Amino acid sequence: MAATGKKWVAPSFVLQIGPTSGDASMVRFGLTATKKIGNAVTRNRARRRLRALAAELLPNAIPGDYVLIARDTTPTATFDAMRQDMIKGMKRMKIWQEADIG
User: Which of 67, 19, 69 shows the shortest CA–CA distance to 43?
Assistant: First the structure.
């Protein structure tokens, strides 16, 4: 995925977009936090924060496969800053779509 897809590097995470595999009508995502981030507690905190971010914002993405990669600032960054970075990245990569209401 890293070689063929697009990616957005934010201060607290990296968002990668890969080719869609499987059901082309749904959004799928994966999370990665390597040992460079810290110990198990820190990595789990980073994954929980990325999971919450994905659950909140990826429903606004076009269907596809996404990977969120934690960086060393993920566990300590403010959630609002992470949210703004994610929205900015999704708009720049042209995967943002407004959610249909009703």
Answer: 69
